[in-house]
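note to self: dont lose this again. the chain is below, predicted strucutre after it. 321 aa total, dont forget to put it in the shared folder this time
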Amino acid sequence: MRRVLLAVIIVFSAFSMLTQLVSAAAFPTKQVEVIVPWSAGGATDVLFRAIANVFPKHANGQPMVIKNIPGGGAVTGTMEFVKSKPDGYTGLGIATPIITKMNMSKVPFNMDSFEPVIMVVENPCMIMVRADSKFKNLRDFIEAARKNPGAIGIGNGGAGGGTHIVALAFEDFAGVEFLHVPYQGGGPAIIALLGGHIDSVMASAPEGISNAEAGQLRILGVLGPKRLARFPDVPTAAEQGFDFSLSMWRGICVPKGTPKATVKALHDILLKCIEDPEFKRQGDELAIEIVYKGPEDFGEYMRAEDKFYNRLIKVKGLEDK
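---
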């Protein structure tokens, strides 16, 4: 009897595995939706719309649809993602701000809510002002902030988000005090800056890149290890006497419980997308720094980032849980 039962279990397991592999081989058979928990026009939104442009070429002709769900510092959109069916047809445009938000505030999700698929980019942060600003470089900006504590406004893509935390960390590093102004995404923050409603913005490419090239905005400094290829004349913070560097990364996750074969199928499609010459051309135009990591490496990277921001937020006393 035990042998019969064991044989049935083995056959059932083999059939289940075969079914998953066949299903993954045909994946996708309908549109894939990627939730971006910020407003349209921000860095994460622009990145995944660029991927969506080439997605059908590598996905049986099926489209990738970007669904913007801003609000709550990315919590609103992330919650809809967490409740979605783990079948590979709903993904999350995940980025640094979601990790910082989890460590800063009490939210109904954690690292176990995500199944990493692919990391696509890692872009350094940068401080931007209007082209007609009195601030010509980072030294001018910091000197003014020292003389006028709390008077210079610096916008970010959401309270508790990545660019907010970076601005707070840089403020502490430089020994100054800014007026932090949150927006529902990097896009709205750039719009506010263009409209003269804020003095500056902590951003991450591609936010504001086209505006800087058009002469509407000025990048005061790049908070990364090297200058941006699109702006070779803009020095890094370190070159201006501020040895500070933090970046924003972006990738795609699916809900926990998604079959491994489906995760691999989606990963393989997305890898072809970021290797596609058309996407690379768009990426160059947007000053996107492509940094690829597969599911396992991306998962390890996310866990390391979670630990880093957990320590940073605790040391700075930024928790509001």
